[in-house]
């Protein structure tokens, strides 16, 4: 079974298409406040987790929360798609600014799985084309994650590996 090792003090960036199971994975393996979610931040600034027009404010808030947690020496998981290089660069910069190790955990599930799960969630407003775009971006991202500054990169291939994975914290 895949073992996802993370340093005890790290910034863990989940990377995965919408519907890939990031929030489910985060809830299973981390404590509630350890997980900072872009959707939750969108909800806090706009009353609507799906309001994409609130993204700038949401990510501003997310960065603020992450920075303050890292400053306090708390492991923090960023639950957002993180499929673009720019989004990840901000997280790597935050980790470096706080002397914390940036870790990437990639949920590389088939696009069909992610799209079907999304379709089963009414009102999400995310269609198949968006999931496909996320998936393409993720694929292009895979090779370069170490070079972007992630000190540890775990790629979970497929639903079975995501389901079977355990998370181990190392000092
Ligand atoms: P976004 O927040 O839209 O980016 O998606 P996400 O990556 O956080 O996916 P999420 O964890 O919300 O999972 C999407 C849907 O798939 C939810 O309805 C979950 O219940 C379901 N799901 C997640 N993981 C699994 C899994 O391992 N098995 C099954 N059967 N369903 C899952
Ligand atoms: Mg989610």
Task: Tell me about this structure.
- The protein is α/β, with parallel strands linked by helices and 171 residues long.
- The chain contains eight helices and seven strands, in the order E-E-H-E-H-H-E-H-E-H-H-H-E-H-E.
- It has helices at residues 22-29, 38-46, 55-71, 85-97, 111-119, 128-141, 145-148, 158-164, and strands at 3-7, 10-15, 35-37, 76-79, 101-108, 152-157, 166-170.
- The strands form two sheets. It has a five-stranded parallel sheet, sandwiched between helices. Strands 1-7 form a two-stranded parallel sheet.
- Helix 2 (38-46) crosses helix 3.
- The chain is globular.
- It binds guanosine-5'-triphosphate (GTP) and magnesium ion.
- Residues 16, 18-24, 39, 81, 117, 121, 159, 162-163 line the site of guanosine-5'-triphosphate (GTP).
Task: Give a quick summary of the entry.
With 171 residues, this protein is α/β, with parallel strands linked by helices. It has helices spanning 22-29, 38-46, 55-71, 85-97, 111-119, 128-141, 145-148, 158-164, and strands at residues 3-7, 10-15, 35-37, 76-79, 101-108, 152-157, 166-170. The protein has eight helices and seven strands.
């Amino acid at each position: 079974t895949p073992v996802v090792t993370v340093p005890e003090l790290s910034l863990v960036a989940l990377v995965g298409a919408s519907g890939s199971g990031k929030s489910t994975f985060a809830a299973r393996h981390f404590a509630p406040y350890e997980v900072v979610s872009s959707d939750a931040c969108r909800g806090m600034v706009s009353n609507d987790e799906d309001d994409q027009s609130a993204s700038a404010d949401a990510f501003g808030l997310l960065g603020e929360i992450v920075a303050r947690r890292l400053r306090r020496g708390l492991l923090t998981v960023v639950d957002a798609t993180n499929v673009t290089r720019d989004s990840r660069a901000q997280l790597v910069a935050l980790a470096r600014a706080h002397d914390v190790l940036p870790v990437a955990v990639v949920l590389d599930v088939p696009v069909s799985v992610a799209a079907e799960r999304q379709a089963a969630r009414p009102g999400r407003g995310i269609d198949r084309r968006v999931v496909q775009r996320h998936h393409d971006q993720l694929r292009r991202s895979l090779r370069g994650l170490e070079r972007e500054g992630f000190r540890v990169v775990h790629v979970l291939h497929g639903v079975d590996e995501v389901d079977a994975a355990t998370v181990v914290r190392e000092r």
